[in-house]
Design a protein that fits this description.
The chain has a six-stranded antiparallel beta sheet, with no helix packed on it. The chain folds into two domains: about 80 residues, N-terminal domain of TfIIb, CATH 2.20.25; about 30 residues. The protein is α+β, with helices and mostly antiparallel strands and about 110 residues long. About 40% of the residues lie in helices and about 30% in strands. It binds zinc ion. InterPro entries: Znf_FLYWCH (IPR007588). It holds the Pfam family FLYWCH. This is FLYWCH-type domain-containing protein. Keywords: Metal-binding, Zinc, Zinc-finger.
């Protein structure tokens, strides 16, 4: 029961926080939707709704807009960016190297 309540609360918080969206044209002239630093390409248009999918391969995030490009809702979450993870690993490694150097310097000077 408690878990269900927490999940519901989190979900409504996420939905309440709508990203600000803007639109650009890709270099192929296709429209792209930009939300929270992610780009979405137009996947499907119906008589009432445009369906946008994240341009990152394998990402499950989607955005629905009306035909006037007004945000209706966001669906799903972005897959973690492999590039970002790599960056974090590199930063951690650089920190380690820095600490090691610092430690060695201390050892030499004492
Ligand atoms: Zn995504």
């Amino acid at each position: 029961m408690v878990e269900a309540f927490v999940t519901l609360t989190l979900t409504s918080e996420i939905q309440a926080k709508s990203p600000s969206i803007s639109f650009i044209n890709s270099n192929k002239g296709k429209p792209l939707l930009v939300a929270d630093d992610y780009t979405f390409k137009l996947n499907k248009t119906t008589t009432s709704t445009k369906y946008w999918i994240c341009t990152i391969n394998g990402c499950a995030a989607k955005v629905h807009t009306d035909l006037n490009n007004g945000l209706l809702k966001t669906v799903g979450n972005h897959s973690p960016l492999p590039g970002k993870e790599k960056l974090e690993v590199r930063e951690a490694r650089e920190k380690m190297t820095h600490l090691k150097k610092h430690f060695l310097t201390l050892n030499i000077s004492t």
